[in-house]
Amino acid sequence: MKRILIAEDRAGSRELVRTVLEDCGYTVVEACDGAEAVRQATISMPDLVLLDLQMPILDGYEVLHYLRRDARFRLIPFVALTANAMEGERERAHAAGFNVFLTKPVDLIFLRTELARILNGNQLV
User: Fold this and answer.
1) Cα gap 56→54, rounded to integer Å
2) Domain definitions of the chain by residue range
């Protein structure tokens, strides 16, 4: 069973995504801020990480940067989640090392199909 870490500071958003992913058969680990995301990632070694870009303590970019320095996380896909869909943000996220960029509110059907595609080893976009 694939394990996904959701790092999102808004409890309602975290719960919605968790419910969808658990319904798809994934094991879900949660973090409510960036520091907790780093801790949970190193403990649970997820197969994929969903990171809100704007979280307390460490933002999604900082979490990504910190985890990518660890060889264990170099090949794990990271998905950026943000309500900030300003021009250039997608490019910034990809340049930073995110594999996928999703805006909120998340299209839950797209989320399911995109994560299944990524976790089945298909090419990352």
Assistant:
1) 7
2) 3-119
What global pTM score does this model have?
0.92
Amino acid residing at 47: D
Evaluate whether 31 touches 39 at the Cβ level (below 8 Å).
yes
| pLDDT per residue rounded down to tens, the chain (125 residues) | 899 999 999 999 999 999 999 999 999 999 999 999 999 999 999 999 999 999 999 999 999 999 999 999 999 999 999 987 788 889 999 999 999 999 888 888 888 998 998 888 754 44
Q: Which fold has domain 3-119?
A: Rossmann fold (3.40.50)
Please tell me whether residue 103 adopts helix, strand or coil conformation: strand
In Å, how far are 72, 109, 120 from 8, measured between CA atoms?
A: 22, 19, 24
Please name which of 9, 11, 74 lies closest in space to residue 45, comparing C-alpha atoms. 74
